[in-house]
Amino acid sequence: xxxxxxxxxxxxxxxxxxxxxxxxxxxxxxxxxxxxxxxxxxxxxxxxxxxxxxxxxxxxxxxxxxxxxxxxxxxxxxxxxxxxxxxxxxxxxxxxxxxx
Length: 100
Known about the structure:
The chain is α/β, with parallel strands linked by helices. 31% of the residues lie in helices and 14% in strands.
């Protein structure tokens, strides 16, 4: 699998994204509605992130919430869901792209 085949879901709070920056191309979804937006059979799903064939990678600030969220998405039918180990802080620390 290539990285460009995956979509990043940023579940950080708006305040953190405003303060620390945004991940280019990431879909920003609040953690409290993540399951509704990602579940393939939800009437409130977001087509960008609810395809069971697509690789989705959940990102929070430090990697704790996202690991739990990815596990839940797998149970909802997104078997290719994963998370960014270390979250946004690791992403930024590894000098990956961030928009201000």
